[in-house]
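Quick check before the chapter quiz. The format below is the same one you will see on the exam, so make sure you can read both the input and the output lines.
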Amino acid sequence: MPLFKRNIFGQFLFLKKLVIILFGLVSHRRYRKFNSLQIEGSDILRNLPDRNVLFISNHQTYFADVAAMFHVFNASLKGRNDSIKNVSYILNPKVNIYFVAAGETMRSGILPKIMAYGGSVSIDRTWRSAGKDVNRQVKNSDISNIGKAIKDGWVITFPQGTTTPFRPIRRGTAHIIKTIKPIVVPIVIDGFRRSFDKKGLNIKKRNVLQSMVIKEPLEIDYNNESIADIVTKIEFAIEQHPSFLKVLSVKELAALTKEEEELNKKREFWSS
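Here is the expected output.
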């Protein structure tokens, strides 16, 4: 790879590679030492093409979800079977992996800004800004950038646009799928919300079993299926359809709330 080669967004690939390596080395023990990440579907990743792949996933933290996926993707491509054991796989990472993220999140501090260089396709959310509900037009440049990223490689997106579970799927994801026609690979994660704080930077509980299940690509009739049909497929694929919702009793909900409050008092910085 030429030293000063740039990607489609003008980023120097050697710098992007360096960012991925550094964050990979620092974050690895969060999924192997402090907690345990159980993986299913590595073989599916190895059978995907190098470009035109869109990963759709439920969302539990701002950063820890994506970081784990970078680990799993690169480990799988280096021959690991449902494992991220031996972090040497990150020393030569796949550099055409991108993730869709809210621009305000990726501009919120020096650490997010550095992480953004690792592959963020930053967009302005049309429904939320600075913690408040808004209603604004979709920026054509955002849609264009997501399309460019898909055509260049693998893109991770969280179609609910929030870490709150069982929120509606944003129809924009379905529009992108119908227009660009990528291979759509669902991912279902769990345990990240219990392990980390909302940002995914602080550890709030150790010895949590985290899981990541990579599913077979969706079968989509891009020409004949409606946006609503695709939205429903996404809901079921990432297990965020209302039918997956477990109804908690008042006692269970109170116990869960108490546990969360106690854990929030014991947060530890991710590199401790």
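If your answer matched, good. DSSP finds eleven helices and eleven strands in the chain.
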